[in-house]
Structures are given as structure tokens and as C-alpha cells.
Amino acid sequence: MLTGKRILLILSGGIAAFKCHDLIRRLRERGASVRCVLTPAAARFVTPLSLQALSEDKVYSDLFSLTDESEMGHINLSREADLLVVAPASANILARMAQGLADDLATTVLLATDKAVLVAPAMNVRMWLHPATRANVATLRSRGVAFVGPNEGAMACNEFGPGRMSEPLEIVAAIEAYFTGRLPAAEPPPLISGPSVIRMPPEPMGGAIAHRPLMSRRAIVTSGPTREAIDPVRYISNHSSGKQGHAIAGALAALGAEVTLVTGPVGVADPAGVKVVRVESADDMLAACRAALPADIVVCAAAVADWKVRNAANGKLKKVPGAAPPALELVPNPDILASLAASGPQRPALVVGFAAETENVVANAVAKRERKGCDWIVANDVSPATGTFGGDRNTVHLVTASGVEAWPTLAKDAVAEELARRVVRHFGTSGVVAAS
Ligand code: CTP
């Protein structure tokens, strides 16, 4: 969607600047080219070298560099861009933009440009809520500058509130919205009164809905393996890494859904912006999912152990010299997906399962969709040769009531993002559930 688009990324000072490495990567994955301009403060948080390596382009920071001006005047930096993105945008750069100052390369480019500007603010909550910043934001919006974020959450300064820079995928979604004409016209934000206000209204800036189409939706995602105890020190489990389930939780959250991620033990990091509930056994996973209801969307990506040990021992099983090893009697675990997909007042509107198959992938997945009563099945081949378990890529088929779609081999993140886009399409912008 961003193929051939040229993004001029202007970084101002702030700890959130480190997220720009990921932002550049995501933009380039989508075919955009990225050229970076740094303020002097930004250069204290990220190095020009790292940005240059990721963007594969020269990084600009000095207004008075003779070399830069002879090779690429500051006016050309803007001319050769389709969109200017300021991320992170500190309170300081917002103030300088609002005042029309041009005291470094970044603000000079911003003052000289006739291109659209998208801003991703990042600052301390009190700076964001300060009347001066509110007024600057209102001024910029009235001039057509678009905003994405900031998000609410814990901050590096140990405070909580609005001021966290949007996640890279949210910024990417806003950029895509700009190029597809879905970025709405700017309108003044509500002004916050009184210095003691810490929390912003849930929808602080116009336009957030367009970037967060799942804003009013609740989602539950299961991920990772389960562990079924044999005794307090041993268990039955599987090789699931949790990468795919975690990526789906992150992708749904990036589009605005309120996500509860119920996960077995995994080594991957918690995705941003989701509530994480850690469990061990299938019984615990089911209980945690039920506790998270009601939800609009359920995605069961966990590799739930099919069996558990009947009467797991309370103490460690000891070897008895000369005696036969203990026989483990297995009993079936509850089927979490089938249980959540069963009809009833709490059945989520969209229930998505995975099918981990080693042979007859599509045929088994089609049958599994029927058997489990879910709406969609994402079928993947987990035979060892594919490297799906634990790997970073996945080749899936999406099985719905209307048929089977083969997707190309994609990074697990990309599978997650595509699935999240399908979820948005399924629900439509009106909030009415579309037939699948
Ligand atoms: N699943 C679940 N609870 C279980 C077993 C599976 O929620 N006890 C879910 C998985 O999260 C996945 C789907 O069911 O979304 C299919 O899992 P899979 O392991 O492919 O299928 P099984 O149910 O184990 O069936 P089979 O053994 O026949 O492949």
C-alpha cells in the first residue's frame, strides 16, 4: 500500500525516538522509502548511524552544512517527500511549529514545506495537558496538521496518562490512511481545563477512530502452549512459541481493540497495549477466557495440550529401584475454542481458530471449522520441515464459510496484521457485523 511513497521522518528529542527504528522497518517493509531529519535533541537518543543503516539513506541534521546544502538543499528535502511525519514530536517542536520558528533544520523544513504533515506527539502527561501545548496543538490542527496519538499509559517518567507516542504500527496505519484518503480533516481538539486533570477523554483527538477502527471492540486472544502437570516439577507441553498469537493480539490492539491476551508460558515479549493474563494449564486458560467475556472477537491461537494427566501427583514422583516407571493416565482437556464458539448469549460475534496440521492441511481445517463451530480457521502446516513452530514466518490458508484463501508465506507479524485487517472488514465501519 505504501509502495513508492517517500516519507520524510523528522525526529525530535524524546525517549520514544527509539521506536523509530521499528517504524522505519515497518514502512520499508511496505515499500515506502524513508529519509530522516534529526533535531539536535533527537541525536542524543538515537544515532544518525542506526537511522542511516535502517533507512539506507543519508540522515540530515545540520541546517548550515555546506555539503548537505550543496547536495540536497533543505527545500528539496520537503520537495522530495510525499508526506512529512514528525515522530516523536516533543512539546518543544510542537511549540516551534506553532510559532513558525525555523531555528534548526527540522523546523526550517517544516516551515518551508507545502506537503502534508502528520505528527505523533510524545511527552510527559503534564506537558501534554499544559494549556500552552493544548493551544499549540489546536493551532497546528487548524492549519491542517494531522495527529496520531498520543496514547495513554505508563511513561518513562513514572507517571501515567496521555503522552506516550503511538506504536509504530499505529503510525503506519495513520500514514496508510493519509495515502488512501481516510485521514479525516483536522478539527480542534477539546481543551482540557484545570491543571489537575490527568486523564484525557477516551477520544482526545479527532481522527483517532479512522486509525483505530476496532476502538469499540473487545477481543480475547489465546497464545502459546499449555503445560499439563505430571507432578509439581514435570509437565506435558509442546513447542508453540506464542509468536503468532502475540502478534495477533498486538495487531488487534494497534487497530484500537481492547485486547486480553491469555497466554501459556512463552519467551516472547508482551505486545504493546494489551492486557496479559498468564496461565499454565488448559483448564486455567479456559477459565481466564471465560472471565474475559463478553468479547466481540476471539482468536484461539494457543497450542492447547489435548490431554492432561488424570490425578497429577501433589508431590514429586520418585523413582523406586526395581519398580516399573509410573504409567500416566491421560484424560481430554476442555476444548477452549469449541467452548467459546458454542452458541449462547455470550458467544462472541467473530470466533477464529487455528488449525495446526501436518498433512491434508486444507481438508482438515475445513472439517475442523465445522466441528468446532467457529467462524474462521487459520490453517497452518506445522510439519517440522516448514519451521512454523518457533519460526518467524507462516504460510496459512484462511477458511471461512465462503471458501478457502491461500495466503503467501509471510512474516508472522504480517499474517497478524492481515488477519486484523480482515477483522476490521468483517465488522465494517458502521459497527454492523458483515456476513463472512
Ligand atoms: N484448541 C483449543 N482447545 C483445545 C484444543 C485446541 O482451544 N483443547 C484450539 C486451538 O487454539 C486452535 C484450534 O482449537 O485454535 C485447533 O487446534 P488444533 O491443535 O489444530 O486441533 P485439535 O483440536 O487439537 O484437533 P486435532 O488433534 O484433530 O488436530
Can I get a quick summary?
The chain has 436 residues and is an alpha/beta fold. The chain has 15 helices and 22 strands. It has two domains: 195 residues, Rossmann fold (3-Layer(aba) Sandwich), CATH 3.40.50.1950; 190 residues, CoaB-like (Rossmann fold, 3-Layer(aba) Sandwich), CATH 3.40.50.
Classified by CATH, the class of the largest domain is Alpha Beta
The bound ligands are: cytidine-5'-triphosphate
Largest sheet: 8 strands, mixed
The overall pLDDT, averaged over residues, is: 87
Cα separation of the termini: 24 Å
Q: What is the name of the CATH architecture of the largest domain?
A: 3-Layer(aba) Sandwich
Task: Describe the model.
The protein is an alpha/beta fold. It folds into 2 domains: 6-190 and 202-211, Flavin prenyltransferase-like (Rossmann fold), CATH 3.40.50; 218-307 and 328-427, 3-Layer(aba) Sandwich (Rossmann fold). Helix content is 32%, strand content 22%. It has helices at 19-29, 48-55, 66-71, 74-79, 91-99, 105-112, 125-129, 131-142, 168-179, 208-211, 243-254, 282-292, 336-341, 361-372, 412-427; strands at residues 6-11, 33-38, 59-60, 83-89, 117-121, 146-147, 151-154, 160-164, 218-223, 228-231, 234-236, 258-263, 275-278, 297-300, 307-309, 330-332, 350-357, 376-381, 393-394, 396-400, 403-406, 410-411. Strand 17, helix 14 (361-372) and strand 18 form a beta-alpha-beta unit. The longest helix has 16 residues, at 412-427. It is elongated, with a radius of gyration of 25 Å. The two termini are 24 Å apart. Cytidine-5'-triphosphate (CTP) binds next to helix 13 and strand 17.
